[in-house]
Amino acid sequence: MKVVVVIPTYNEKDNTSRMIETLAQVFATIPTHDMHLLYVDGNSPDGTAAVVRQKQKTYPWLHLLVETKKEGLGRAYAKGMAYAMKELGADYLMEFDADFQHPPADIPRLVAEIDRGYDYIIGSRYIPGGSIPKQWGLDRKLLSVVGNLVARTLLILPRVHDVTGGFKLARVKGFMDQFDFDSLLSKSFAYKIHLLFYMVNQGAKVKEVPFAFGARSSGESKIIKNEMQETLRVIFLLQLKNPKIQKFIKFGLVGFAGYLVNATTLYLFTKLSWPGWAAWGLSTELAILSNFTWNNVWTFRDQQISGLGTLVSKFVQFNITSAGGLLIQVAVGLATDYLIGSQYRQIVLPLTIAFLVMPYNWLMYTLVIWRKKAPSQK
């Protein structure tokens, strides 16, 4: 496999010569793959590109792409990866820092996972054996740890532990060669969120390899104050187009419509002085009817239940599974009636639905009522 290590630079003259010599030694320890190094320089005024050109006379595996203007880390990687695929014939692309924060000695450990069949190999700081610099201040440590946790949670990637790092190795065929680099959502640090989300959702076989993230030895720090804000922006845009999230939003809107049915009828039955069990029970059942109808024709339209017999059968099943939500709602309603009074029903109801009934219903809907059929075996 031809592996191209892509390193974007801007004013990295002090690190460049040492990095190239270090990687020359590292590449010599990987005889099973064709290792190449591509510098993408942002037209650095300090002469970084000149250093690379000088080293090219010695190393035929060293390549240089100079940007006409500096457009940010994300754009530099996009240009470099596109160049590596088109001009160098890369089979794998590695993201790598120019400043030794990613240890060159760990490159063989990531490359070794190619031979084990992995499509996306992530250098991870947050699995056993990985770490962040002890020299960092508390604020920087919190930004890294909490930022990664927030991103991981919002991306809904429980099996990937380091989603904000930039030390990664990605297969080209069937993955990176299908990515539209013009669609990259961030020109800055958050580009990595988009690429990771893409690879995982393309079905890449993922492997995390622990490594110790190093303290920057010299040069200008890349840490920026709005890194978290940019990451959140990219995550929001990604999830906005995510079919699973879109379905969940529809589910939430249908649930809200059911809440309106529930709240309105509960208010009416309370005004009519109905007993608490009857008011809570019937208003909840009317909401269940509303939820079944709208989820079937809208939320789960791609798995829509049709045919009178199947529809009736599934509606009965829906009522049975919804009994859990009914019991939750009635139990909480009666308990709060007793503890704080029935005058607080309109406050108790939305809280009960949002934090107890909706999570339960989502599980029942996706795992039981509108469960996707397994593909037939031929």
Question: Can you offer a commentary on this structure?
Answer:
The chain is 52% helix and 10% strand. With 378 residues, it is α/β, with parallel strands linked by helices. The protein has a 7-stranded mixed beta sheet, with helices on both faces. α1 packs parallel to α2 and α5 runs parallel beside α7. The longest helix is centred in the last third of the chain and has 33 residues. The two termini are 34 Å apart.
Structural class: alpha/beta
Radius of gyration, Cα only, in angstroms?
27 Å
Helix content: 40-55%
What sequence of helices (H) and strands (E) makes up the elements?
EHEHEHEHEHEHEHHHHH
Strand line-up of the largest beta sheet: 3-2-1-4-6-5-7
Number of strands: 7
Helical segment count:
11
State the distance separating the first and last CA atoms: 34 Å
Biggest pleated-sheet summary: 7 strands, mixed
| Shape assignment | elongated
Strand content: 5-15%
Unreliable runs, pLDDT <50, ≥5 residues? 218-224
Average pLDDT metric: 90
Keywords:
378 residues, single chain, elongated, alpha/beta
